[in-house]
Design a protein that fits this description.
468 residues; mainly alpha; Serum Albumin, Chain A, Domain 1; 4 domains; 19 helices; ubl conjugation
């Protein structure tokens, strides 16, 4: 079987990683294949269309009502028209509310707020006023020190960040998608203001945005990571269960070009597994992305050492899938969703972070849909492996390729011994059941024979009174 054929189920054209709108940025399954920028545009169009449709429906209903009122008589027309006017007013307010963006927070002042809101704006909310961890305190100090170099612009950024955190507290009951959109709006509008108003260079804007992300997400993490209102936890358990069920998948099935017999390569594999597991311990999206990037670089190094040449994309993706299967990272889907929702969007659209993250999403999607054809197995083999009735093995383990992991070889030797032991045990159990059946049949036969003899030759015992 050729290498090309074996890879047929794993290969992903690199063009498929890009935004399907053709903008050149990396796409994401969570955004239906769009990049962050195009997804937001499509989402805004869909939302505006829904608002417009609702508005047109309200106008049509009003016209129909007015025509009905004109043709009818009585005192009911007045109250009904008034009622529908209130409905129209409500729809108008709803439309205005929906199209309002985060920009209003940039120009908001305490003068325009009610007294109650002024008090809340000046004092931290109960959720934000809790005792911060050492990390939170350190991040706050670092953020303030960083912004000092930007003087007035830094002061505005800090003020906007605090206003944003307060606004997010008031949005705590909103669904996670609305909070995500609000956060993305904040990133975008802050970057635009820095460039247009304060004339900050794009490179520095990127650095400021990264620091803003670190500052706000350190505080928001526990509220927006895997929220109860989503099915993130359910997806985590599903993926975890799926990976456990695929424990039998071997590197050879995935065409992984990594020789773990080489000490340096084995060390790279261990580091890659450690990095992707460590992702769950990070609180900031950028730090989680950094774990994915380090993991991916270890994979590329492992492939390069094994092949003595730079790794290709076709080498990288199967190996990444193999690492994910070996690591079974905790809360994998929750971490992916968290990064997608709250990371600085520019990091997911371009650069090595975006490339590696997109490949991880592809790897998870492949694992979720993995079937017999993907591994070049028959449906019967795949079903037996998934059910645990069998495991992939060679008749002669010594004939396996030299790059096969020794641990895998030993595992299959142990599985062979267990299979033989199971067969012997099954044979003994079947023999015991047969012996038990034979004993029962023999007992029944003896009982029947005794009964027949007694009936045929009854034993009459005479008493003393019956004697002659």
């Amino acid at each position: 079987m050729s290498l090309k054929t074996e890879r047929r189920g794993i290969h992903v054209d690199q063009s498929e990683l890009l935004c399907k709108k053709g903008c050149g940025y990396y796409g994401n399954p969570a955004w239906q294949g769009f990049c962050s920028k195009c997804w937001r545009e499509e989402y805004q169009k869909a939302r505006q269309k829904q608002i417009q449709d609702d508005w047109e429906l309200a106008e049509r209903l009003q016209r129909e009502e007015e025509e009905a009122y004109a043709s009818s008589q009585g005192a009911q027309a007045g109250p009904q028209s008034l009622t529908f006017s209130k409905f129209e007013e409500k729809k108008s307010n709803e439309k205005t509310r929906k199209v309002t963006t985060v920009k209003k927070f940039f120009t908001a002042s305490t003068k325009s707020l009610p007294k109650k809101d002024i008090k809340e704006a000046k004092s931290p909310s109960p959720s934000l006023s809790r005792q911060y961890s050492l990390e939170t305190d350190r991040v706050s100090k670092d953020f303030i020190e960083f912004l000092k170099t930007y003087q007035k612009a830094g002061h505005d950024v800090y003020k906007m960040s605090k206003i944003f955190l307060e606004a997010m507290y008031h949005k705590r009951e909103s669904n996670i998608d609305e909070q995500s959109e609000f956060t993305q709006d904040f990133y975008q509008n802050t970057a635009e203001k820095l460039q247009m108003y304060w004339k900050v260079s794009p490179d520095k804007v990127e650095k400021v945005t990264d620091q803003i992300e670190r500052f706000i997400m350190t505080r928001l993490y526990k509220h927006v990571f895997c929220p109860e209102t989503t099915d993130d936890e359910k997806k985590d358990l599903t993926v975890q269960k799926r990976i456990r069920a695929l424990h039998w998948v071997t590197p050879q099935m995935l065409c992984v070009p990594v020789n773990e017999d080489i000490a340096e390569v084995s060390d790279m594999v261990v580091k890659a597994i450690t990095d992707i597991i460590e992702m769950d311990s990070k609180r900031i999206p950028r730090d989680k992305l950094a774990c994915i990037t380090r993991c991916s670089k270890h994979i590329f190094n492992a492939i390069k050492i094994t092949k003595n040449e730079p790794a290709s994309a076709d080498d990288f993706l199967p190996t990444l899938i193999y690492i994910v299967l070996k690591a079974n990272p905790p809360r994998l889907q929750s971490n992916i969703q968290y990064i997608t929702r709250f990371c600085n969007p520019s990091r997911l659209m371009t650069g090595e972070d975006g490339y590696y993250f997109t490949n991880l999403c592809c790897a998870v999607a492949f694992i979720e849909k993995l079937d017999a054809q993907s591994l070049n197995l028959s449906e019967e083999e795949f079903s037996r492996y998934m059910s645990g009735q069998a495991s992939p093995k060679k008749q002669d383990l010594e004939n396996w390729p030299a790059d096969t992991c020794p641990g895998v070889k030993q595992m299959h030797r142990n599985l062979d011994l267990l299979t033989q032991l199971s067969k012997r045990q099954e044979h003994i159990v079947n023999g015991a059941k047969k012996l038990e059946k034979d004993l029962i049949d023999w007992t029944d036969d003896v009982t029947k024979e005794v009964k027949d003899i007694v009936e045929k030759y009854p034993l009459n015992i005479k008493t003393a009174s019956q004697s002659p």
